[in-house]
Amino acid sequence: MRSNLFLALILSLAVGLPAWAQSSSADQNQPGANAPASERHEHKMPSPDEQLQHMTKTLNLTADQQAKIKPILEERQQKISALMQDNSLNREDRRAKFGEIHSSSSQQIRAILTADQQQKLDQMRAEREARWKEKKGQSAAPEQK
Q1: Residue 16 C-alpha from the chain's centroid
Q2: At residue 37, does pLDDT exceed 80?
Q3: Does 107 reside within a domain?
Q4: What gap in Å lies between CA 73 and CA 77, rounded to an integer?
Q5: Is 2 within the bounds of a domain?
């Protein structure tokens, strides 16, 4: 009876350990997995296709506008990905470069939009910025008990 229990324990370890080790090592290979929680970015940037789909829905883009905007979004994604991999930049320089990339692509996209679409885009960005500032303000406020 005791040997059956021992055999069951050995079998469960033999089956469970490789799966546990694999999931554990996979977690360690994730970008930022070893970084402190304050440095990890949990928010994943939408793909160019997801961004285009959202813009098409909210701004009622034409097929011609979609065809012109998609390469701009793809280029922005490539530049941002390269920027995130560039370890030679400090945080401030990276943030400034990110702003330049975003500003450039936004100007290119605005040039493709109609005046009404530009106004709608400006309104959406203002609302998003207000939500971000509100959220940031809430998280920065000390807890009162």
Answers
A1: 33
A2: no
A3: yes
A4: 6
A5: no
As given in the structure block, the two tokens for residue 94 are: 């990276």
Single-letter amino acid code for the residue at 28 = Q
Q: What's the domain count of the chain?
A: 1
Residues of the domain holding 99: 47-134
Whether residue 73 lies inside any domain: the answer is yes
* Tokens found for residue 131: 């939500």
Q: Which residue has the tokens 């280029």?
A: 75
What are 84-125's pLDDT values in tens digits? 999 999 999 999 999 999 999 999 999 999 999 999 999 998
Tokens representing 120? 């709608």
Tokens of 58: 């909210």
Residue 75, class by beta-carbon neighbours within 10 Å (0-12 exposed, 13-18 middle, 19+ buried)?
middle
| Run of H or E residues at 103 | helix 91-112
CB burial string 77-92: b at 16+ within 10 A, e below: bebbeebeeeeeeeee
Q: How far, rounded to the nearest angstrom, does the alpha carbon of residue 95 sit from its chain's CA centroid?
A: 15
